[in-house]
Prior knowledge:
Blueprint: H1 23-42, H2 47-52, H3 55-76
Helix pairs in contact: 1-3
Amino acid sequence: MNQEWAPQGWDREQDGDFVWNDGFWTEGLDRCATIRLMMETLLEGHPAIKRAGAQALIAQALANLDDAYQLVGQEAFKPADTPL
């Protein structure tokens, strides 16, 4: 993640990548859940999505977000002595 800006509280290393902190686990879970809810609310069943025949694409995107959420959660709650 090489950006010109960094959200407040994110420290950047010399090469521009962000320094890891364990709060990223919670943030990652929160972002997956938020985006999934927004997609489900705003796109699933929308007349334009139906008319374009894109329901399967939306369903797959929602399933992918579910998978991402599960993977982040599994990593976040590994025992401390488990290598990443």
